[in-house]
Amino acid sequence: MNNEIFVFGSNLAGRHGKGAALHAAKFHGAIYGQGIGLQGRSYGIPTKDQQIQTLPLPAIQRYVNEFLAFAQEHPQLTFNVTRIGCGLAGYTDHQIAPMFKDAPTNCNLPEGWRTQ
User: Fold this and answer.
1) What are the pLDDT tens digits along the chain (116 aa)?
2) Could you name the domain of life of the organism this protein comes from (predicted)?
3) Exposure check for the chain: N or C terminus, fewer CB within 10 A?
């Protein structure tokens, strides 16, 4: 069984039309209309709202915290985290990486994120 989960930035409308979200839909079972959580072999962390407008950082932090708790509760899975929020949402690695400072060891983070 494949225990790898592709973690991507999503929107609350669950419209996986671009970037890592589109990749998640095509290759990892992301479900159109579901913007949050485990779906197939992927996990969506919202970085945009229902109208596809970028969420403020505190809102993204709440969704990241939910994800980190989920990852902690599922040590048998490996979570391959993409640079959520750093593409279409427009944030920088410096703004997003600290949200993952307490990520469990079963989370593979983007280059440099564990040190920011």
Assistant:
1) 579 999 999 999 999 999 999 999 999 999 999 999 999 999 999 999 999 999 999 999 999 999 999 999 999 999 999 999 999 999 999 999 999 999 999 999 999 998 76
2) Bacteria
3) N
